[in-house]
């Protein structure tokens, strides 16, 4: 097994109300120090609800945001500073909103050529050839190249974005909610395309989504994020059917499913913890029906509970 | 709330300091020697040197700034050589006139502008909207000094409805009615441009708000249309209109310079222009700092008004 | 449509352009015209009236030819105005782009400086600069340009910030571009329209300002004259010889007015929101323009829609959002309307009470009968009385659907008092009761809270409480849980389900989620390209969908607990609503489409078990759907 991406103690704290001089008024910890390893050729899914820090994590991994602490090792090489070109050759990012990730004033050709020109210094002929290859791989017609982004539907635009990520020739792709903005019937097209591309180009994926079923369908392993930390990580085919962390269980039971009667998995009406005043101990404690006394004092570490499965809970299922 | 006001007051201090620095630096750029200008034909080298020492002009720039600032904080803005009286006295006296003129105009343009903009938006593409839009265009395209001259020609000279110029009658009582008759023309002229700008921005702010989801919610609740426009939409639009009012207050103060000159109104604007033409630097410096400081305080009041309107601004 | 096409369509802007061009041409050819020397004084000929002794516009107080001075002065005013606008725009935009792009401390320091300059009423700064540099036209130009730099800097910074945070800038970074290249090729092209708009709407203003400084005697110095100084010199003779003032004053007015007309036209043509009609005011009711005969509705149900068609008319294109919908909702029944984006489900829901924004929305056909009362084409007052009282709405995004500046309590009380003259205290108690009924903890405290102080789930509860305010018979819920997290969605759905049973509510539930429909709805209607393709009891449709679209759409939805797998997909795209195909709209993507499918309109036909399907070959088993 070769490691594609290894993260140790990565965290991000945002300053609120920055002043001209002096310290900012408040800090928000978006990502608690966390460690992760992604194997080469693997798809790691990351799920969590809004505000859990999944996009912040992804942006740090792509070098778009400077981490507050910790280090990122890609294919055995440590990349720390937010230095996009170095990152760009190794890791690429597919954003949620395909329309806003394409510059409305550039043609698709200009967009596709950018990584070839600036990352790989390819000649004009080489670029032409490479773009043709990629367009075939993502099922797009070559005559799209001279059009502008607004002429495309969401599904097509997302293929273009994926094509641009491939053009950089990076081996790792961060897919940040790549199908959330698309309709179900189009969503499946893009997901299947991603699976095909992975085999064809030998890629490693970090797949972020709030949709458990989508994550389960595409991932090998899944990490569940809550309030900036990983609360559970395990194989995709197991983590939602046999959750060990109460939050994972809550998520799995909340998704409306055909054939399951409507129930509110949480009896109480609960608000999420305030990131500016994080609770002491386990951040899930207030919503948790299995909370113990110690949960209020100490936050649990990730511990192995089964083969390949780790969870951060003092009273795991 | 008190905390918010205090916070804003404290944050105004660097702005005020900045203003004083900018004014001081601009004035320090003046080529030539103020002493020579003051002394005129009496400018023998000895006299110039003596005056420079008296005025503190032989000291380094930074030191001069702090001396000037310190004096100003004690109420000493220096002495105007052209009028031969303390700058502060002259400025305060003249500012009174400007305040009456600009304050009246500001009240007119705020009320008229917002009302016109709201009506215009509510009747988009209707007759009222077209009429208002055209009037607004005319209003913002006409130079206030030209408009003032035409008003004098029509309403003062030909129709004799209002006096031609000044703030008070030369003979006769200085009462409210005579002030109003003197004030009407200049206040209207001064309000014209700002009314146009405010109406325009109010219209677009209203149109923006009328597209929002919460307007649809209000309609879905069965709220009457009049209430949808004036209660729901206008209140939300005020969030973007109020800062514009703050900016427009500056334009009204600026326009006052022209209007004061056209109508011979005893105000600070006319004083400044005279002072510049006479190269009375201390008077210019003092007048500019004083008016700018008043404007900063006014904008502070605008911020407070905004925070009262919008609960999302943290108090 | 192209920029020039749009500009040409705007008649006022075109008029402005023509006048502007004429003035510019005149200014350019002035040196070639056989004019008297503008600066030669001849006191014997002073104050000649227009058309007196072949001087067309008369002469001024020194006997100089006014026409000649007007043209030369206009030339100067134009040049100075444009030059200062160009300088201010260039420097201001550069500052704004740098501040907005780099953000952080750079931004902070630059913007503090800009704020400092904006803390002056502009004329004070201009006067101070002229005082320092001395009177003169070039100095006036510098002053006016300097005073306007902060305006551009602040404007452009705002736009740049929003562009610098767009994903395509991140993508450019990952494509290996450096900051300078990103600013020039990614940010600048998107900022330029805003710069052009800002410039075209301020050039006129800058001409006025420079003329103003000259008027005060601080700009152009005699004998050279621009329009402002001509007016300034003429002022002393205003009463005796008004023509010397009117001539230059009118010229300034004409120049500035034509520039402003043109500037507004440029703004309208460049602003994408104006172009898409997004800044037109929605009327209180959706426009109804029915050409076809209105269908008779025999209504035994609570709500019956028949043949409802709603279109969007914009820029000469017609989007057929809803193309003939029939739907019945009985008392106490929950009907789900499911479809993908653009299927017309939300527009159908909003059409019922005339809440589709118009312009551009128009209801072109159909009827909607609510408890015996016709809704389409009803007067505003009729609809208003029903809205929120007997038919209430719950909208998708609870953050934007609530008024940000009123407390939750005020908004609830308003909903009650819009229909019932309840005393305020009583309304307050009722509202608190409503908050309790939607299970909001600390209802009394929340009553005085603002929407922004609450979480998404809490806000949607407020939305539901507001819909319940007058005990309606029908609630139309337009994707009420789509913007919520799953755990919160589960809470809201169970709340809705409980309330419905307690109060005997009828609900139309718009959604794109089969899971939600399955859990909440008695019946379901599936929409595609503006029409219902299948309708019937929920369990029947979910167990054996009859329409190929329903079946294949259901197959696309990944289900939790089935592990890693290939997903079924529907090839192709939904049709574009302004170019709908003949016949079945799904035929293009349907694997069993035949010629008859594309031949003509296919009607929806009832089948066994209260079901209806719009397909000529609906015998389709659920298992076939999975590829």
Topology (elements, then pairings):
The complex is a heterotrimer of chains A (317), B (315) and C (627).
Chain A: E1 3-16, E2 26-39, E3 43-47, H1 54-61, E4 69-74, E5 77-79, H2 84-90, E6 91-94, H3 108-120, H4 124-137, H5 154-167, E7 172-176, H6 184-201, E8 204-209, H7 212-218, E9 221-226, E10 229-235, H8 236-239, H9 246-254, E11 303-306, E12 309-311
Helix pairs in contact in A: 3-5, 4-5
Chain B: H1 2-28, H2 34-39, H3 45-55, H4 61-73, E1 79-80, E2 85-86, H5 87-122, H6 127-141, H7 144-158, H8 176-210, H9 213-220, H10 225-262, H11 268-277, H12 281-309
Antiparallel strand pairs in B: 1-2
Chain C: H1 3-9, H2 11-29, H3 66-102, H4 104-118, H5 122-133, H6 137-164, H7 167-174, H8 179-200, H9 203-215, H10 227-234, H11 243-270, H12 272-275, E1 287-288, E2 303-314, E3 317-329, E4 334-338, H13 345-352, E5 361-370, E6 373-374, H14 380-386, E7 391-394, H15 398-401, H16 408-417, H17 424-437, H18 443-447, H19 456-468, E8 474-478, H20 486-503, E9 506-511, H21 514-520, E10 523-528, E11 531-537, H22 538-543, H23 548-556, E12 605-607, E13 611-613
Helix pairs in contact in C: 1-11, 2-3, 2-11, 3-4, 3-6, 3-8, 3-9, 3-11, 4-6, 5-6, 6-8, 6-9, 7-8, 8-11, 9-10, 9-11, 10-11, 16-17, 16-19, 17-19, 19-20
What does this structure look like?
By secondary structure, chain A is α/β, with parallel strands linked by helices. Chain A has helices at residues 54-61, 84-90, 108-120, 124-137, 154-167, 184-201, 212-218, 236-239, 246-254, and strands at residues 3-16, 26-39, 43-47, 69-74, 77-79, 91-94, 172-176, 204-209, 221-226, 229-235, 303-306, 309-311. In chain A, helix 6 links the parallel strand 7 and strand 8. The longest helix of chain A is centred in the middle third of the chain and has 18 residues, at 184-201. In chain A, 46% of the residues are buried. The mean pLDDT of chain A is 87. Chain B is 77% helix and 1% strand. By secondary structure, chain B is mainly α. Chain B has a two-stranded antiparallel sheet. Chain C is elongated and about 105 Å long. Chain C contains 23 helices and 13 strands. Chain C has an 8-stranded mixed sheet, with helices on both faces. In chain C, strands 1, 2, 3, 5 and 6 form a 5-stranded mixed sheet that branches. The longest helix of chain C is centred in the first third of the chain and has 37 residues, at 66-102. Chains in contact: A-C, B-C. At the B-C interface, helix 1, helix 6, helix 7, helix 8 and helix 9 of B face helix 4, helix 5, helix 9, helix 10 and helix 11 of C.
């Amino acid at each position: 097994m070769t490691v594609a991406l290894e993260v140790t103690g990565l965290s991000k704290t945002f300053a609120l109300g920055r002043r001209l001089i002096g310290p900012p008024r408040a800090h928000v910890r978006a990502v608690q120090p966390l460690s992760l390893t992604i194997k080469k050729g693997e798809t790691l899914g990351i799920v969590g609800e809004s505000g859990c820090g999944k996009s912040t994590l992804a942006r740090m991994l792509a070098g778009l945001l400077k981490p507050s602490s910790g280090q990122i090792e890609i294919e055995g090489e440590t990349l720390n500073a937010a230095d996009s070109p170095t990152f760009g050759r190794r890791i690429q990012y597919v954003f949620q909103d395909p329309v806003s990730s394409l510059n409305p004033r550039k043609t698709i050709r200009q967009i596709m050529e950018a990584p070839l020109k600036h990352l790989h210094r390819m000649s004009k002929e080489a670029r032409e050839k490479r773009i043709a290859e990629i367009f075939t791989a993502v099922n797009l017609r070559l005559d799209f190249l001279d059009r502008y982004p607004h002429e495309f539907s969401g599904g097509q635009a997302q293929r273009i974005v994926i094509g641009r990520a491939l053009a950089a020739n990076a081996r790792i792709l961060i897919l940040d909610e790549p199908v959330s903005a698309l309709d179900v019937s189009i969503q499946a097209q893009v997901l299947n395309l991603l699976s095909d591309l992975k085999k064809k180009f030998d890629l490693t994926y970090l797949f972020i989504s709030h949709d458990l079923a989508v994550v389960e369908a595409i991932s090998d392993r899944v990490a569940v994020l809550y309030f900036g930390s990983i609360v559970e990580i395990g194989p995709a085919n197991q983590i939602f059917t046999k959750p060990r962390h109460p939050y994972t269980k809550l998520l799995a039971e909340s998704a409306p499913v055909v054939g399951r009667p409507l129930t509110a998995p949480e009896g109480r009406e609960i608000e999420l913890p305030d990131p500016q005043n994080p609770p002491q101990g386990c951040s899930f404690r207030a919503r948790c029906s299995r909370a113990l006394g110690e949960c209020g004092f100490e936050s649990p570490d990730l511990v192995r509970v089964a083969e390949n499965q780790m969870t951060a809970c003092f009273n795991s299922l | 709330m008190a905390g918010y006001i205090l916070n804003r007051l404290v944050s105004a201090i660097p702005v005020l300091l900045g203003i004083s620095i900018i004014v001081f630096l601009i004035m320090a750029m003046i080529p030539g020697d103020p002493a020579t200008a003051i002394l005129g034909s009496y400018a023998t080298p000895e006299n110039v040197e003596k005056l420079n020492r008296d005025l503190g002009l032989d000291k380094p720039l930074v030191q001069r700034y702090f001396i000037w600032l310190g004096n100003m904080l004690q109420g000493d803005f220096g002495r105007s050589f052209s009028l031969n009286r303390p700058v502060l006295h002259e400025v305060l006296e003249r500012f009174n006139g400007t305040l009456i003129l600009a304050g009246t105009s500001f009240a007119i343009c705020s009320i008229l502008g917002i009302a016109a903009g709201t009506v215009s938006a509510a009747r988009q593409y209707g007759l009222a909207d077209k009429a208002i839009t055209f009037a607004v265009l005319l209003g913002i395209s006409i130079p206030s000094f030209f408009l003032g001259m035409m008003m004098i020609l029509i309403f003062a000279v030909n129709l004799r409805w209002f006096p031609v110029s000044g703030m008070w009658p030369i003979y006769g009582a200085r009462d409210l009615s005579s002030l109003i008759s003197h004030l009407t023309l200049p206040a209207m002229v001064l309000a014209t441009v700002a009314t146009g700008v405010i109406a325009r921005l109010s219209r677009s702010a209203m149109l923006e708000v009328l597209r929002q989801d919460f307007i649809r919610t209000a309609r879905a609740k069965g709220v009457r249309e009049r209430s949808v426009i004036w209660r729901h939409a206008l209140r939300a639009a005020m969030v973007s209109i109020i800062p514009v009012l703050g900016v427009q207050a500056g334009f009204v103060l600026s326009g006052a310079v022209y209007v004061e000159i056209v109508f011979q109104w005893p105000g600070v604007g006319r004083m400044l222009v005279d002072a510049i033409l006479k190269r009375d630097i201390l008077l210019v410096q003092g007048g500019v700092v004083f008016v700018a400081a008043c404007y900063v305080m006014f904008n502070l009041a605008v911020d407070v008004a905004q925070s009262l309107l919008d609960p999302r601004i943290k108090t | 449509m192209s920029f020039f096409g749009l500009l040409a369509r705007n008649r006022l802007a075109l008029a402005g352009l023509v006048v502007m061009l004429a003035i510019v041409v005149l200014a350019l050819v002035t040196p070639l015209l056989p004019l008297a020397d503008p600066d030669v004084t001849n006191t014997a000929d002073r104050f000649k009236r227009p058309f007196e002794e072949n001087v067309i516009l008369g002469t001024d107080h020194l006997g100089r030819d006014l026409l000649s001075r007007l043209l030369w002065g206009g030339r100067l005013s134009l040049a100075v105005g444009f030059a200062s606008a160009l300088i201010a725009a260039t420097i201001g935009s550069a500052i704004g782009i740098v501040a907005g792009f780099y953000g952080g401390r750079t931004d902070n320091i630059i913007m503090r400086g800009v704020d400092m300059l904006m803390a002056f009423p502009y004329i004070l700064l201009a006067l101070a600069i002229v005082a320092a540099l001395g009177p003169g036209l070039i100095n006036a130009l510098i002053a006016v340009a300097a005073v306007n730099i902060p305006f551009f800097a602040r404007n452009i910074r705002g736009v740049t910030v929003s562009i610098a945070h767009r994903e395509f800038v991140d993508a450019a970074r990952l494509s290996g571009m450096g900051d300078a290249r990103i600013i020039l090729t990614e940010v600048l092209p998107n900022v330029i329209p805003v710069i052009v708009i800002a410039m075209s709407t301020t050039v006129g203003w800058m001409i006025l300002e420079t003329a103003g400084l000259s008027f005060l005697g601080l700009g152009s110095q005699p004998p050279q004259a621009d329009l402002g100084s001509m007016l300034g010199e003429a002022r002393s003779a205003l009463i005796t010889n008004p023509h010397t003032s009117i001539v230059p004053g009118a010229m300034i007015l004409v120049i500035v007015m034509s520039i402003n007309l043109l500037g507004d036209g440029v703004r309208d043509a460049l602003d994408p929101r104006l172009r898409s009609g997004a800044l037109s005011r929605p009327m209180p009711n959706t426009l109804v323009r029915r050409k076809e005969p209105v269908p008779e509705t025999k209504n035994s149900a609570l709500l019956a829609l028949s043949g409802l068609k709603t279109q969007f008319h914009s820029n000469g294109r017609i989007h057929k959002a809803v193309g003939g919908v029939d739907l019945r909702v009985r008392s106490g029944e929950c009907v789900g309307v499911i479809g993908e984006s653009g299927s017309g489900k939300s527009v159908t829901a909003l059409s019922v009470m005339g809440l589709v924004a118009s312009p551009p929305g128009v209801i072109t056909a159909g009827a909607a009968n609510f408890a015996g009362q016709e809704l389409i084409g009803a007067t505003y007052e009729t609809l208003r009385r029903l809205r929120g009282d007997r038919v209430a709405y719950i909208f998708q995004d609870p953050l934007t659907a609530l008024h940000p500046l009123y407390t939750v309590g005020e908004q609830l009380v308003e909903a009650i008092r819009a229909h019932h003259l309840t005393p305020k205290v009583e309304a307050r108690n009722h509202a608190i009761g409503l908050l309790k009924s939607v299970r909001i903890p600390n209802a009394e405290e929340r009553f005085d809270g603002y929407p922004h102080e609450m979480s998404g789930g809490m806000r949607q509860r407020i939305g539901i409480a507001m819909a319940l305010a007058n005990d309606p018979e029908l609630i139309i819920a337009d994707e009420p849980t789509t913007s919520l997290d799953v755990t919160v969605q589960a809470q809201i759905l169970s709340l809705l389900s409980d309330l419905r049973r307690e109060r005997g509510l009828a609900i139309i539930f718009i959604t794109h989620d089969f899971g939600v429909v399955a859990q909440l709805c008695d019946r379901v209607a599936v929409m595609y390209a503006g029409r219902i393709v299948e309708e019937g009891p929920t369990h029947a449709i979910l167990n054996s969908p009859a329409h190929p679209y329903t079946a294949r759409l259901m197959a696309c939805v990944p289900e939790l607990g089935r592990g890693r797998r290939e997903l079924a997909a529907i090839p192709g795209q939904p049709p574009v609503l302004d170019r709908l195909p003949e016949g079945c709209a799904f035929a293009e993507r349907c694997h069993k489409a035949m010629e008859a499918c594309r031949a003509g309109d296919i009607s929806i036909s009832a089948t066994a078990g209260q079901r209806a399907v719009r397909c000529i070959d609906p015998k389709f088993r659920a298992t076939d759907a999975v590829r």
